[in-house]
Amino acid sequence: MINGSVFRLQNIVSLIEACRYGIHDISRVQLDSASHLPRFNMPFELGVFYGAKQLGLLKHQKKECIIFEKEKYRYQQFLSDIAGIDVSPHDNNPHVLMLAVREWLATASRRTSIPQGTDIVNRYISFEKCIKRICKIRSYNYNDMSFIEIVRNMTDWLKLNQANTTPLISGRP
Question: Which domain covers residue 149, as residue numbers?
């Protein structure tokens, strides 16, 4: 849980410490329009994750992650130190990203209860249509929603829609 009274980096370190799995998208390195400098937060967070895995206790050495990038080898131009690690391209397509995360998570966790990727994508499409329709009715710009607002709305939507459909993840591993 993010704590607003704690230095942001400490929140990130705490989240990485608590999680066995990491999903890192290093594709957002475009130049800022005002400063003309790139933001390297995601590659930095990948470095913190990797440091925890390499230098941490036994439980941290079991950490697993997947790394995404827009194009397969583009990262070599700005983060060449990870050359030799498999990086998954997503071409800025959220459906490709969802399918890849699902496949990786099913493999890494060995869970058999994770639905097929197409089911997850279809549920996301249903959610997105619903939330955009509600935003339009309430004269609220969907694009102005913060990430946490989208997550909260998605959580509520899933709770309301689980009764009629198969849960996205059910049971235990």
Answer: 115-173
